[in-house]
Amino acid sequence: MLFGMRRILFTVPFILFFVPAVRAQNDLAGKISCHGAASGVPASQNRLYGKKLWDGYEISLGPARNAHGDGDDCTAAIYNSSGRVVFRTTGFSVILDESHTGQDFDGDGTPEVVFITDTGGGNHCCWAYNVISLSPKPHKLFDIDEAGGVRFEKDGDGKMVIWQPILGPYGLTTMARVPGAEKVFRVREGKLLDATPDFCSRIFSGGNEDYRAWVRDLTPENIKKLQAAGSLENLENEDIISSLLSRALQHVFCRQFDAALSDLNLWPEATRAKIKSAFAESIKQDYPEFAARLTSLERGRL
Fold it and tell me: Which of 52, 83, 209, 273 lies 20 to 30 Å (CA to CA) from residue 5?
């Protein structure tokens, strides 16, 4: 479900490049696109594009006229029927996401426009989907990071569901085994609403590739391996380490805090306090009560 999250490349601090699914690859290879000079795309391919939308709106996308070479190489704008710019995005690269433009994200019965903007200078760190509504007047609905890893799907009622992979900032594995979990969002009143708990039965089921990996990697025998001296530095244990932290993080996103604590208590005792502290630090903004719980538990052991 995470598109092989456990094998996503990772460079501290938070320089990410997700191995995308087929649809995500198509998004990032959009026909109507502009890419910065350092991307390797021939300048001859960075021409000015125009595309008519609906209700008199049009898109213009191409090289920025007054670029300074600091990540503002490309720009895209939406114009109304009077020729006035009602939305603009500028970045190292900009793509019109044609596979999702025209879909209804907020459930108001009207379509949205979707751009993908790279504001990270081509360092693979900062791609984001920009979702813009034109009704009742043009306005940005939301940005969501990690284009190429995010998935959009429709539920049984035809409502948009957005899956976003989130990496754990633990630095305890190589780039190929960084831990991670997923959050799931719906769009309500023009904003992203975290709906992850509604999908946790699906996440923790045999239909999820990552769940199957957790079951395979986190056997009692493998957990016992982590207790041996030098186990955390042994590359052969990376799958176990990644799966344990990934499952704990997913339990947090599902608000299954007791289960997350049980996972963290499987960590080797010698460094358990340290990993709980790092874990608490990474989640404290969204889950302050559980972060405080982790911290207080370890303080109580001192």
Answer: 273
Cα(133)–Cα(141) distance, integer angstroms: 6
**Cα(265)–Cα(277) distance, rounded to whole angstroms?**
13
Q: How many CB atoms lie within 10 A of CB 209?
A: 14
CA 233 to chain CA centroid, Å, is 28
Q: What is the dihedral of CA 67, 72, 73, 74, to 10 degrees?
A: -110
Other C-beta atoms closer than 10 Å to the C-beta of 68 total: 8
pLDDT at 119: 80
What pTM value is reported for the model? 0.85
Beta bridge partners of 78: 59, 87
d(CA 239, CA 74): 40
Query: In angstroms, rounded to a whole number, what is the distance separating the alpha carbons of residues 106 and 104?
Result: 6
Degrees, nearest 5: CA angle 48-33-57: 65
| Length in residues, the chain | 302
- Structure confidence at residue 297 (pLDDT): 64
Structural domain boundaries in the chain: 5-196, 203-301
Q: Is 83 exposed, middle or buried (0-12, 13-18, 19+ CB in 10 A)?
A: exposed
Which stretches of the chain score pLDDT less than 50? 2-23, 302
